[in-house]
Design brief:
It is globular, with a radius of gyration of 25 Å. By secondary structure, the chain is of the alpha/beta class. It is built from 15 helices and 22 strands. The strands form 3 sheets. Strands 6, 7, 8, 9, 10, 11, 12, 13 and 14 form a 9-stranded antiparallel β-sheet that branches.
Length: 523
């Protein structure tokens, strides 16, 4: 088959890209004609070296960074595999698989109180079902402060249900979460060649402005054939990458927070509190795929809860590393993310735990090594970690090469992972490790994992058999101190960790993936 494999974030070369690259490698190795889909040219040699894969000879198709462009590209292939986190692109190929790193939904859909209030508000305006649908021109949902929004691409098209000749009021609400350097953005709302309304979306000037939206009210007239009326939202665009936001090359117009249509006795409420009508991003695009593949049982559970869709578990492929001569190193591998940005790896807390171990004398001669990439916008957090580690035997290896990473795994005796520490798993499941590729990589090289007893890490590490769990920093310190003090136990757990890691090898991943692909014709 002609196969297209998509990842929005190839250049970050992280765990998600490891999965996407492995899918491409496995399918190419099985004789399929595989192309990578990206939004910018790729250095495939660097990608292969960093991800420990062989994708250097594969062709790359480059398209605009919009869901519409991705969908259109998929139409020219027999199978489309969407392996990109947060992607809302529809599949237009005859066959499609969607790999779920974790299901994302807007803020409203995740908050029960807000969802209940919004449902009551919708009943007041006489609209129990959505009357505005997206045709094209909107990016996948982003959660920005108090609002979930979908950025337009500069020319978004919405469909409004209306009976022939009926005049239907439409209410749109735009967020003001614009970069200060973008300036006021003019917006036109059109139906065909007619301009229905204009507005100006201004950046936030004061903190109190974060609670305000720009509301636009128009009326559309139903078509004689009864088909939905197309409403266009047109504006200039900007690219966050040009304003210093690393990795975000999307063309962004304005953030659409809500879209509502219809009449009812509560229309005045919609005019005054448009935020109540924030429209959760639809997951109907998932129905264009033949199957969903979740990266863990933890993720599979949330796919059911948040998306109400079935899925199969396909654990990510993990490179198997050879152990070297072990020294007194505690290792952590993960990108540096600023606090409050979501998927924090908690390096600052790990440094605090190591300080306690070091100053108590229970880790004499040991060091902590933190390995990971860091985008420019997170350099402030990196410097916080560096300052907290001052005076300690702590090494920060930022932007490591593949060879440097292999060397770090080879010599590490203990591996730490604390993503999700101090977070509420029910309220913010996205802040946890949904599987944990680096944990398995470390285990394959004979490092004993000491990991948080939450989410995907529980599926990887079996306490007392091939590693240890902890619930808080006290537990991390005590579990590590026990391993430091007992070299024999550490060696036994290390041997079992290597055995356990083989269950998540590229070969095991490939067998399961090919079985899924071979089964598509039976669906």
């Amino acid at each position: 088959m002609k196969v297209l494999v998509y990842d929005q974030f190839w250049s970050t070369m992280g765990g998600g890209e490891k999965v996407a690259g492995a899918i491409a490698q496995v399918l190419a190795g099985a004789g399929h004609d595989v192309t990578l889909l990206a939004h910018e040219p790729l250095d495939l040699e660097a990608l292969s070296e960093r991800l420990d894969l062989d994708v250097a000879g594969l062709p790359v198709a480059v398209v605009e960074e919009t869901p519409d462009a991705v969908s259109e590209a998929s139409a020219g292939y027999d199978l489309f595999v969407n392996a990109s986190f947060t992607s809302g692109a529809r599949n237009e190929a005859p066959r499609g698989l969607y790999y779920v790193h974790f299901p994302t939904v807007p803020l409203l859909a995740r908050s029960r109180p807000r969802r209940a209030v919004a449902a009551a508000a919708r009943r007041l305006v006489g609209a129990t079902e959505p009357t505005v649908e997206v045709r094209r021109g909107l990016h996948s949902p982003d959660v920005l402060r108090r609002h979930s929004v979908r950025w337009t691409t500069g020319d978004a098209r919405l469909l409004v249900a209306a009976a022939p000749g009926e005049r239907v009021p439409v209410r749109l609400a735009f967020g003001r979460n614009l970069h200060p350097d973008v300036g006021p953005v003019p917006v036109e709302v059109r139906a065909g060649d007619r301009v229905l309304a204009t507005a100006t979306v201004t950046p936030v000037a004061r903190r109190s402005d974060l609670r305000r939206l720009v509301a636009v009210h128009v009326e559309v007239e139903g078509r004689p054939d009864g088909q939905p009326v197309e409403v266009a939202v047109v504006s200039p665009t900007h690219r966050p990458s040009a304003l210093g936001v690393a990795g975000d090359h999307r063309a962004l117009g304005v953030p659409l927070a809500a879209a509502e249509a219809g009449r009812g006795p509560g229309r005045w409420l919609a005019a005054r509190l448009p935020g109540l009508f924030e429209t959760p991003g639809s997951v109907a695009f998932l129905d264009t795929y033949d199957g969903l593949l979740a990266n863990s049982t933890f993720t599979q559970t949330w796919v059911t809860r948040l998306w109400d869709r079935p899925s199969e578990v396909l654990y990510p492929p993990v490179s198997q590393y050879e152990p070297g001569r072990k020294d007194r190193t505690i290792l952590h591998v993960g990108r540096f993310f600023g606090r409050g940005t979501g998927h924090s790896k908690k390096q600052l807390e790990l440094v605090g735990a190591f300080r306690r171990l070091h100053e108590s004398g229970r880790a004499e001669g040991w060091r902590l090594q933190l390995v990971g990439g860091c985008a420019p916008e997170h350099h402030g957090y990196l410097e916080e970690v560096r300052a907290a580690a001052e005076g300690l035997p702590v090494e920060l290896l930022v932007g490591a090469t593949g060879d440097e990473l292999r060397a770090a795994y080879a010599r590490a005796s203990i591996y730490w992972h604390a993503t999700g520490l101090g977070e509420d798993e029910k309220a913010h499941p996205d802040r946890f490790e949904h599987f944990g590729i680096t944990t398995v990589e470390a285990m394959s090289a004979g490092a004993v994992p000491v990991v948080i007893a939450r989410a995907g890490q529980r599926e990887v590490v079996r306490p007392g058999q091939d590693g240890e769990w902890f619930d808080d920093l006290d537990g991390l310190v005590e579990a590590t101190a026990g391993l430091v003090a007992d070299g024999g136990r550490r060696a036994r757990l290390a041997a079992k960790a290597r055995e356990r890691a083989r269950a998540f090898s590229l070969d095991a991943f490939g067998e399961r993936l090919l079985a899924e692909v071979d089964g598509l014709d039976a669906r």
